Amino acid sequence: MSPSTSEFGFHTTAEEAAEVLASEIAGKNVLVTGTSLGGIGFETARVIAKYANLVIIAGYNAERLQLAEDAIKNEVPAVNIRKLILDLSSLAAVRVAAAELNAYPEPLHVLINNAVGALAPFKVTVDNLEKQMATGHVGPFLFTNLIAPKLLAAASSSYTPRVIFVASAAHTFSTTIDFATLAKPDPSKYESIFHPYNDTKGANVLTAIELSRRAGGKLNAYALHPGLIYTNGARNEDILQGMKAYGFLDAEGKPVNSNPAYQWKSIPEGAATTVVAAFDSSLSATPGAYLDDCKDATASIAPYAADSANGALLWEATEKILGQTFKF
């Protein structure tokens, strides 16, 4: 017998969550970014594909997208799936992808901003933005706002479209957002590969809250912590060294579970909270909520990331970078 959502927790898998929420997923058109094999985005798309009307997988690498599509089709032959090339590190590329999606005939019920910039030494994008913040915040911010009409078109008297930001509890390792370096990256302030990652995840939490507020009930946004997960990306040498320094991995690069505050999840467990955030109807009463272990964990948001003044500042600073404003 499948558990109800009230019984979901740390070990709930995306498969289990999707099975319970199948009736909520049915008929929905869903877009998931960052769906390479071996990651939680792929696992999210895979389980949703069993019930959704349309699943759009988005990423910058055409070969990886094809591998993901093939794997999903192999398991769910009748799936209605579509690929979208989306390079979140390039604002021009984001605009091209948004235009393509806006030309689709279908509305979009759920957007899952799952993709993240790789943890790596300091680097700027073609738009002269710090790459992790560009890929994890500025690009998704632009894409979300540009395709808002598609989301709003899915609204009905009984359904409010959703935007999901896969954030992280790592946002609690930051104490503020450095608005000065958002538009003008400063390598001297790049403390480690985790510094911009933590800030980016804080930006995700702030954006979910602020987007919900500005949308005024027209759409609901949520952020979440998927958990500490050993994906393919963790095998990158820069990431390995950083995670060893934080005590997440031992000297051999293997996950450490001795610290109860940092327990590792499997990829299926890591994708479960995303599925809940995207489809659990009980969350409709709490737009802007932050989830962890498939439950509302808004009380655990770091103070700076729950500050509405910071949310407004971040929104306006990001709009300034983009040179346009967004209204609902």
Structure description:
With 328 residues, the chain is of the alpha/beta class. It has a single domain (5-322), classed as 3-Layer(aba) Sandwich (Rossmann fold), CATH 3.40.50. The chain has 12 helices and 10 strands. The chain has helices spanning 14-20, 22-25, 40-48, 62-75, 91-102, 131-146, 148-152, 179-183, 194-215, 237-246, 267-279, 308-322; strands at residues 29-33, 54-59, 81-85, 110-113, 162-166, 220-225, 228-229, 264-265, 290-292, 295-296. The strands form 2 sheets. It has an 8-stranded mixed β-sheet, sandwiched between helices. The longest helix is centred in the middle third of the chain and has 22 residues, at 194-215. The relative contact order is 0.15.
Largest sheet: 8 strands, mixed
Strand content: 5-15%
For the record, give the distance between the C-alpha atoms at the N and C termini, rounded to a whole number. 42 Å
Q: Ranges with pLDDT <50 over ≥5 residues?
A: none
- Global Rg: 18 Å
* Annotated CATH topology: Rossmann fold
Q: What's the average pLDDT?
A: 92
Number of domains: 1
